[in-house]
């Protein structure tokens, strides 16, 4: 976060990148943290202690002026502070990479992979603390986190760094990594934004940028790149312990299309809606893009993102935005390979083809399958599923469901009732028949639909 000989120009350029309110806030923060117009290390430690451990705060302090040869003589003036914060929040990727490199360096010559991994975990933990401190984060904290979850996400984010680079990462290496792992850059920005502009700046219910009086419909929703967690997490009035935690939500929300990131809507959870495939079906069809979360009885957690509405159909639907993933024991996302278009499948009431929900693979050999009996499922991949390139997602190839959740992501679509067949609109009636042990006489008589 070094100084420059052209101080006034650099300071002027830095301040021009902030709006008036932000610039005033940053100057005010520096004034509160300084003594005789010099950044006071003890005051900085107290200010950042809600977010970072002491040793990391010391690295931040030193990084404010990396040109100083003797860290004990560092004197950070207001212009150095403002320019440095500008590089973090508004700077070029190269500038951010240089700062991250400085923060993960054991000395001025070497950057260690293990320290970068620890830095990632520190940023994740700090971000979650900022969410908790914000006035809008109470619903997000309902999902919670664990040390294991934070470590898992940090390991996933650093897994793309080549092993041969682990001993000595250069600024170029860090920049290349940040280009690939954009989530790291966003976390870095938001954590420092929370520290110096306030925790409420990272969760904004108006982040979607809608004008006053504009309804949040799909066609009005801009594609924003700066949304990490959903601006709104709607539990639909239910108080449940979710399958997903905040680190996994960060990863998945970053993987879905931009227009799906601002709001998550709980559509179905076995913990509050019971274990009925009929109810499950009724609550997830025609709801737009969704995230399916499954926990099996052996403790593995996994699922898939459906890019289009689930609908009962005898053929595969969806598109290349679909993906599957694991959450436990590790957080990994698997995108389509392009080998086929077997993205998503949902069918009931047919005697000649599978009845249930599937993603990837093929009939009877799905990458992820939930049977309509609502208990058994499978994840078959030897060695990998053709559609998504994923290995086995569940703990065992054949598994039993422990819990399921489905979240609608993005704005709820307008009703698509006109697209439903008469049979598909009778789900409520079928639920009653299921209770008395009878079948619909029309089951098995429906002709397979033509592929779209």
TrEMBL record:
Compartments in which it is found: Cytoplasm; Lysosome; Membrane
Signal peptide from the UniProt entry: none
Coiled coil regions in record: none
Record's protein name: MTOR-associated protein MEAK7
Secreted found in the keyword field: no
Keywords, in A-Z order: Cytoplasm, Lysosome, Membrane
Residue stretches making up the TLDc domain: 242-410
Primary residence: cytoplasm
Record's GO cellular component terms: lysosome; membrane; nucleus
Alphabetical list of InterPro entries matching this protein: TLDc_dom (IPR006571)
Organism from which the protein derives: Paramuricea clavata
PROSITE patterns assigned: TLDC
Keyword Membrane: yes
GO biological process, one term: response to oxidative stress
